[in-house]
Amino acid sequence: xxxxxxxxxxxxxxxxxxxxxxxxxxxxxxxxxxxxxxxxxxxxxxxxxxxxxxxxxxxxxxxxxxxxxxxxxxxxxxxxxxxxxxxxxxxxxxxxx
Length: 97
Fold this sequence. Notes:
Blueprint (H helix, E strand, L loop, with lengths): L10 H24 L43 H9 L11
């Protein structure tokens, strides 16, 4: 009787998925915290969101702007990363910033 081997998930894809989930959790918690929702503790365990590395403006602000979460974990504004790519600012495919 032949058995099929289940392909093992590589550690790089797992850590990449974990990093993406971590970024989404941080983004969600920071958004809720910025709305002054009392059930979200103001804890050091919730990582602070860094500003957009391209324009240095806050990712979460009153006038909500579209953003993207890159595979490397950076969170830039969508228009900032589009402009950066169009101007040839990409140095490494793994992290365009």
